[in-house]
Design a protein that fits this description.
51% strand, 269 residues, Acetoacetate decarboxylase-like, 4 helices, single chain
Length: 269
């Protein structure tokens, strides 16, 4: 049976007669949101354990970044999702990345990432982000709240990620000055696409290294500040091994981008 003859439609499961029920719609995917970036340095030997060949250590061994983000995201095939189903289009994310390089090109691998929505969980698996479900919270600044206030020198925000009854990540930022987009770390994601083989658990059906194809990146309203970051011990998570030995600062900004898909750069099989 050819793809044209197959009766069910969809980009991901579930496949249905009309194809409307897929957890994820096909790219392009459009994103907009507010990002808190916390830049840190961890023990280089511990970081190296999370960087599989052919990836190598980056030019700044042990450098890492944590993002706490609130995204609103829609697709080309469903651009009205944020209006029709805002509970699906808006989600929170906590992402841990470690600097690496591939054939001399610096970037970041994402060993840990948590989200609070099923469609972005599945979309992460498609791209190569190892997403897990969690509850994620972040301070909301408000110009009209007399006790909180808006973005200004001295403003304070905190992000918390908790899962399975445990606090996993906690980060904070105290604004010290306005900044410009050129000060932000340059981020290129190297992603591990891995899907097990149902017949042979020891041999994955898909095991490859990919990069996201990102366009139309826009950044606005950038603030820099003093950052703090904690990874907590857990019965099921291993992120505490990346405990910061030094904080390198942090940023808060608005961001928009488009992901048109990905490109496989290495196959393990």
């Amino acid at each position: 049976m050819t793809a044209k003859q197959f009766p069910l439609k969809g980009y991901t499961l579930p496949l249905t007669p009309q194809g409307r029920s897929s957890i994820v719609e096909p790219p392009p995917w459009y994103y907009g949101g507010e990002v808190m970036q916390l830049v840190f340095r961890t023990d280089a030997k511990r970081a190296k354990k999370l960087i599989p060949p052919p990836l190598e250590m980056g030019p700044e061994p042990g450098k890492g970044i944590v993002w706490f983000v609130e995204w609103v995201s829609v697709s080309e095939s469903n651009p009205e999702l944020a209006f029709i189903n805002p509970e699906r289009a808006v989600y929170q994310e906590c992402l841990v990345m470690i600097q690496c390089s591939f054939r001399g090109e610096p970037g970041y691998i994402v060993p840990y990432i948590w989200v609070d929505n099923d469609f972005t969980l599945m979309r992460g698996f498609v791209q190569g982000f190892p997403k897990k479900l969690a509850r994620i919270y972040r301070t909301k600044l408000s110009e009209l709240n007399p006790k909180i206030g808006g973005k200004r020198v001295g403003a304070k925000i905190k992000g918390i990620c908790e899962a399975h009854g445990e606090r996993i990540v906690e980060g904070s930022l105290v604004f010290t000055r306005q900044a410009v987009a050129s000060e932000l770390p340059s981020v290129r994601f190297y992603l591990m696409r891995h899907f097990p083989d149902i017949e042979n658990p020891a041999k994955p059906a898909v095991h490859e290294l990919a990069i996201s194809q990102i366009s139309d990146v826009r950044v606005a309203d950038v603030w820099a500040g003093d950052a703090d970051l904690k990874f907590f011990e857990s019965a099921v998570e291993e992120v505490a091994a990346l405990a910061p030995v030094e904080m390198l600062g942090g940023f808060f900004h608005s961001m928009g981008l488009t992901i048109t898909g990905g490109k496989v750069v290495y196959k393990y099989r």
